[in-house]
From TrEMBL:
Keywords: Amino-acid biosynthesis, Aromatic amino acid biosynthesis, NAD, Oxidoreductase, Tyrosine biosynthesis
Domain Prephenate/arogenate dehydrogenase: 12-301
UniProt-recorded name of the protein: prephenate dehydrogenase
Signal peptide: none
Amino acid sequence: MNADVTTAPLFNRIALIGFGLIGGSIARGARAQGLVGEIVTTARSEKTRTRVAELGIVDKVVATNVEAVKDADLIILCIPVGACGPVAAEIAAHLKPGAIISDVGSVKGAVARDMAPHLPGGVHFVPAHPVAGTEHSGPDSGFAELFINRWCILTPPEGTDPAATERLRAFWAALGAKVEIMTPDHHDLVLAITSHLPHLIAYTIVGTADELAQVTESEVIKFSAGGFRDFTRIAASDPTMWRDVFLANKEAVLEMLGTFNEDLSKLTRAIRRGDGEALFDHFTRTRAIRRGIVETGQDSAAPDFGRPHANLKKPG
Ligand code: NAP
């Protein structure tokens, strides 16, 4: 993204409710690209609001969700999935007619079901999920480039004004994202396997190793470069966010977990029977998937995720 290139503002005033990794990245990107006239934001705690004001990225930090949405043309809830319904109920009566209301939640079906009943006619509800993130959270964790070349999925309910969807698509595209539209149920199934299950596995394996660590003392940490540490990055993700994701996407996650357990049993059997061919074939298939991710620009081709390696010292 080039901070020198400015586009005409797409929205006069946007309200970001929640200013963590995602809200903070939207604010920084929108500012850098000149996408909005004014950014108003709020967060739940005084501590975060004070920090956001210090950062000086947004035009106004206000104390309540109701104040934040006043006169806003685009409102984005950047808060945990479980908080979206109650916040929608709180702000509904204060939304400007014709405004677009959206969110960034990692689950779409439950969020739409929780928010939609509260929203008045005359505002446009276009839920969104930017499929981009890091394991960090809070007001300092965001950065303007987070969404570049990542997908942002929009799940407008049936009957949504196409012009509203198009405006939100243009906003995300200007933040650098590639935008796709799908139904909430399809989104939740796809994300269950690509994001939610990997997080569950990481949380499980790191927890299991932690219990083993009681026996092996510090060896789990010491030898973590053998693979374990790559799981710890994912397992360091925000506990509130991920609690809400699993509660909200229960059905799809349980369905994918069923398939995963069957596949794990097949690999377990191959190991028990010494079936090297089955193991080799499986690992060959998965290696090709990694290649596909790199080829489509969704990850770096650098070995070991581009971690720096120290130079060998000359002996003596
Ligand atoms: P985060 O860094 O923890 O920030 C969450 C923000 O929400 C904080 O500013 C928090 O305020 C605020 N908040 C929480 N409850 C609130 C409420 N009831 N009313 C107003 N503000 C409230 O979280 P994040 O990573 O940005 O995630 C936000 C959303 O993005 C989640 O729905 C998540 O599913 C989705 N998402 C996350 C990622 C990711 O990788 N992290 C990727 C894509 C989508 P305080 O700081 O005052 O508590």
